[in-house]
Structure formats: structure tokens, C-alpha cells
What we know:
Elements: H1 15-28, H2 33-38, H3 45-56, H4 67-79, H5 84-91, H6 95-111, H7 146-160, H8 165-193, H9 231-251, H10 255-258, H11 262-282, H12 307-328, H13 334-337, H14 348-371
Helix pairs in contact: 1-7, 4-6, 5-6
Amino acid sequence: MPPVPIYVKGGVWTNVEDQILKAAVQKYGTHQWSKVASLLQKKTARQSELRWNEYLNPKLNFTEFSKEEDAQLLDLARELPNQWRTIADMMARPAQVCVERYNRLLESEDSGGAALSTGVTDLKVGDINPNAETQMARPDNGDLEDEEKEMLAEARARLLNTQGKKATRKIRERMLEESKRIAELQKRRELKQAGINVAIKKPKKKYGTDIDYNEDIVYEQAPMPGIYDTSTEDRQIKKKFEQFERKVNRKGLDGNKDKPSKKNKDKKRKHDENEHVEKAALGESTTLTDEYKKPKLILSAPGTKQGKVTYKKKLESKRQKLIEAQATGIVLTPKELLPHEPGQEDNERSNIKSGKQLKSRLRKFLVQMFAS
């Protein structure tokens, strides 16, 4: 039995595969490479990703290298040896292009312009080209092969189907119902022209609780047959009437109107307290602004002033008390010694002088008392 050949995916990319890859990336994005590769029979997900990132991405720069870019490439290769992915990101070019340009620069310095050949011709029969994703696509022949035609037809069918399976099924069912309705309407018209009247068939209910809005009354509540039973209402009315009679017999008809209840008193008291607190918080509850709390103006009786006579009498009485207190040891407080007499401008000096004399006498008396 001959050995079964092992087919390995890969190889040179064709123009058809490149176009299918571009269309698949537009639909599935740059993260679902397994779906993208399912449209390509001879390529894997990894190969599709490399082809897009190394050749088909429109952001890549394939222009010729300038002298500044050559100098930058040599410096980066010296600083980051064998890190071509990092160098490619910094140069904004594919990694394989950077490698090939670096090899050409080295060869041009050694052999004076001869460049390394990295094309397909260097490969032997049976070898796999490792850099196929970075090379140009193979141009199409006049007629496509059968495999390519099948792959292209399948990709076109899948990419053009922008709706899911459920959406397509719903559309198909809706179109079928519309065609049935039009056929039924045409049939009724023909029968009516022939003189046969046919009633419209009711559509089959999907559920038992479906409502036909043409015939049924939506959410109708039909009354019960017979006379309406009022026995429960009569019992409730009789019970309330008995409660009212007991209340009248206990308190009378106007028993609660004359006497304010305790609950009403508590409510009134709380209302007054809350009103007083609110006025105090707003600065409105003062004796000057409240009409009911203004103090009455009390004036003294008209007549002559007796301030001088009363002042002398008080002073003489204080002196007598001080002399009597020497035996018992009781001393008057400073507030009780000399009452102030406001409004007596003529006797100010005499009052101050007498007050000073009295204070000096008190000091002497206290010193003698504590010394003894």
C-alpha cells in the first residue's frame, strides 16, 4: 500500500487568496484569524495573520529606504541584535523587509553591490518557503482552477451573508406568509366573480389565549347571570348602624364636641412649641416684634426728686450697721456699702469722696481685726 501523502498548508500566496483575505478582515476583523483562515483552504490562521501584518496591511511602508533610514537601521541592529520585530515597529516597516535591507547593506559593503538573493529560486524541490507571507502574490492565469473556483464561491456566499441564521429564517417565513395571503386573496376574488361568496378563514391561533381583535372584546368581564346578591352589603350596613347606636348611647350625639379630647390638647401644645422654636430659629420670636408679648411701659409718679435725702439716709444706716457689726464680726459686702445714685451730677464729687473715706475705714478695721 503506498504511503498516504501528508499535505502541509502554506506556500506562495495567490492573488485570489489575497483578495479573499482582505474581504474576510473587513468582516471579521484582525482578531478572529481562525474564521478568516476557514475561507482559505491552503492557509492556516497563523499564516493569514502573518500575511496581513507583513504584506497586506495598508499601514505598512514599502517605499525605498533613504540614507537616514539606512543609518537608523544599522544603529538599531547594533543596539538590538536579532530583535527584528522590535526594529520593525520602530521603523514602521515589515520585519522581513528590514532583514533583507540589512543583509543588502552588509553585502554591498563586502562585495561592492552584490545583494543576497532571498527569492523562491533559492529553494529546492520539496522545501517550504519560510518567507512566503512577505513576498508578492502569484498572478492569476487565464482560467482559475476548480479548487480556486470552489473556494471563491464559498467565500462569496459566506461574506455576502451579513445576517445570521435566525434572521434569514425569519425573513423566509415572513415572505412565505405574505405569498400565502396574496394567493388566498386572489382565490377569493375569483370565487366572488363566479358568484360564490366564501368567508375568510380565521387564522390558526398559536396559543389558546390569543385574542382576535376583530371579533372579541378585549379583557371583557361578563356579569354573573341572575339578580345581584346584596346580602354581604346588608350585613356590613347593619353592623355599622349597631356600632353607631352603641356610641350614641354611651356618649350622646354632641358628647365629644364640648369636651376637647386629650389627643387634641397634645397636638395643640406640640404645634405651639414647634411654632415657637421656628420663630426663635428665624429670629422672629422677640418681645419687641410679638404684639402679644410686648412689656407694658411703667413710669414713676410725678413729683420732686428725693434722691439726695434717701442717699444720706441709706449711708447713715450703713454706718450704723458697720458699727454694730464690730462686736459680732459681720462685714458688709462691697456691693452693699455704697449704692449708686444715677442722675445726681451735683453730688458726684461728694459721693466719691465719702466712698473713698468709707473704704479706707473698712481697710483699717479689717487690719485691726485680723491683727488681734
